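tool_call: predict_structure(chain=1)
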Amino acid sequence: MGVLCVDCLNEAKSKARPVRSRLGFTMTAGPPLATYAIIGLNVIAYIVGPSIYGSRVAWENAWAIWPQSDWSDWILSGFAHGSIWHIGFNMLALFQLGSVLEPALGRYRFLTLYGLSLLGGSLSVVLLGSAAIGASGAIFGLIAAYGIVLKRLRLPYTQVLVIAVIFIGAPFLGLLPGISWQGHLGGAVVGAATMLVMFRGVDRREAAARSAR
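tool_result:
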């Protein structure tokens, strides 16, 4: 019967090179735990929030982002949803995008992308004098980032572009009332910018590695 050498195993792990995705980022093995955690927080907020504030309307008003909002609402607004359809659609989109992006980018990069996109959506709502709740600003940041990933991999990204145009352009024109095009736009812009900065870091590292050979 063999005996497991714990010290040998730890030494082997410390010497193992990180596995990089095709995008050049250190991959995260296993299930997309950060994605699951964000979904869980949204669901908990949807269930518990109305009880804390006395009603669903009071909770939505307390967490909504608008020009005079407290700084905390810039984050809390991304965890408030107005209906079961609202949270259901957003969480389905988050699950689909997170299941692809989180392993490829790595957990901490994914969380950075999501968080900055959320704040970008809130900033856009404030600057453009609107009000909104929901995770869609952050999700549109993921959509924009996914489009850039597809383009970098030289894969078709037309469908992603069409989705962005529909859910930003149509509400702007008044064709989809009740949807915050301001939040979508801000999240998409910041998400795209964040993804480009991340790829810039990859390009610099790869260029430095080539020059060192």
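agent: The domain at 30-202 is CATH 1.20.1540.10 (Rhomboid-like fold). Proceeding to next step.
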